[in-house]
Structure formats: C-alpha cells, structure tokens
Amino acid sequence: MKKLSTLFFSMFMMIACTQEHAKEYLTISGKLENNKDSIISIASREGIIKKITLKKDGSFKDTLNIQKAAIYTLTSANKMSPIYLKNGYNISLTGNADEFMESFKFSGEGASNSNFILAQITKNQTMGNPQLILDLEEAAFREKVAAIKSEYDSILESYTDLDSTLYTSVKQQNEQLVVYFDNAYAKNKVMGKGKPSPKFENYIDIKGGKKSLDSFKGKYVYIDVWATWCGPCIQQIPYLQSLEKEYHDKNIEFVSISTDEARRSGGSWEAAEKKWRDFVKKKNMSGVQLWSGQDYSFQQAYEINGIPRFILIDPEGKIVDANALRPSDPQLKNLLTSLGL
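^ thats the sequence. predicted structure below, dont judge the formating
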C-alpha cells in the first residue's frame, strides 16, 4: 500500500498590535527528548530545505518559507517522519527520539494534518500482508476491501480541519485503493500462488546450449531477472551467489535471466550478448546464467516493468511467489526453510 508522508509548519506575525498568522512563512517549535543529534532537517523531494539546531534539552524553534503546501520529511539521526507544511501554520512538536515517529504529537495551527498522516501510517502498518487479502474467495475479498476503505474513510473524516489539498488528495487515494485491490485481485487469479507459471523457452545458457523453464522440472526455481546496466541488480549479485553456494546441494536451482538488449548496447544484439557474457565472467557469477535475447514473452507474461525482479516456482512449475523476496532479505531463507529446503 502506498504510504503517506507529510508535514506542516506554522507562524506568527504582529500586525497592527495584534498577533496574526503570516502567509509568507510558518513557525515550527517543540522538544525532542533523548535526541542523539543536535540538528533536525526538513526536506522536500528535491532535498534539504532547512536545518534547525536543537538546544541541549532538545527544544527548538524556527521559521520557514515553503513553495507549496505538501508532505515534507523531518529527519534526525537517520530517522524520518512525515510532516505537512504550509505557510501560515504554527506547529509545535513533542516526541522521543528513541521512538521517533511513533511518539510524535503535533499541536497548534495546522497540526491536524500531520497527526492525521501519522494515524494513516499506523493504519497501514496494521493492515498486514496484502497477499492474504488477495488469496481470499471473491465474496470475502470484496467484503474485506470494503471494510478497509471504510476504515480509511473514517480516519479521514474524523479530522475536520484538514487542509483542503491534503483532504482531496487522500480522498482520491482511498478511492484508488479499491481500484488497486481490484486490479491486483484479477492479476492474482492468473499469477497467484499455485497457478501455473508462464514459461520461457530456448534461452541461451552461458555454459552452452539453451535452457527452458521445463529444463528445471522437479526442482524449485528461484529466478533473478536482471541486466548488466542495472545498479540495484548488481547490488543483489553477492547475496544471490551466497544463497546459491549455501543451497547448492538442495532441490533448488538459482537461475539468472539477463535482459540485456541491443538498445543499450550500441544497437547490436551481438554486442548485447557479449556484454552479458563478459560481465558474468568478470563477476565469476555462479548458478544458471541465461540470456533472453530478443524474446521478452516471459517478462511480459509476468508484467515485469522494473528490475531486479525475483520469482519463485515450485517443482511442478507452479508459482510460489511471482514477486519473491530479494536475496538480501533475511526472510527469504525462512521461506525456503518452510518449503523443506
């Protein structure tokens, strides 16, 4: 589920001998107990826009001018929390650095927005594994999704003074939640656990010859769809090699499928294949190393639009997980153990 992250600041200004909120900036103040850092930072998607110094007791106060009302991020000592900022607000924050976001409470003008976002995040965390919802029978699935949307709508409507921009955005997001589940449910009926896996055929094996998914019938198959130009893919290689070594005598094959293609290799398929072969040799990559060449049918069947992508298939060629955990995730070993590997 997509998670919200937002923050708002507020401010005061003296005009004609009366206190009035200025529209050109906001004020943020508060106290962060047990903070290990003397600085808190406020950042947008483009980067840090303000650094605020904390006193020895963790208290702080500052003003800030922002370009637009939006979700920002408050960071300290590598911990982050959303906060909704809008010029004209005057927000006070209290919390404990040891329980960073979980302990935060906002007060003052504009505070409801950030408090709402934290409540929304808490709800996200209690939802559990969405896959369990997708595995329900249709009637139970519809009932569960309707209940989830009702709970999210209830949280939204319980905050009566939200900024109109935030309210509209979240209202739309709650509607999109149903669309997301409907699309995911339809896909799960075809690509869910226990469904027959789409197949690849005649992919070039770096050791010679060609391999198809059926070549591994009778074994679990952990597939890594990757490319030599993909940074996140390369980061997973050491973890994948470690897994392959640890499970080399188990009933599982680790199959890497390179999607290197002509467009990223000077327009030549021959160059793409050479690039793949040279990379595998340079990295001394173990396991089964295949190249898909110009055949994208397997990737298309699994609707792969980002890599690396990992897929786990059982000995009968049925899907265990169409979007499996990465090799770097410690929980993957727990899954393999549960399968008797």
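The chain has three domains: 13-126, 130-191, 203-338.
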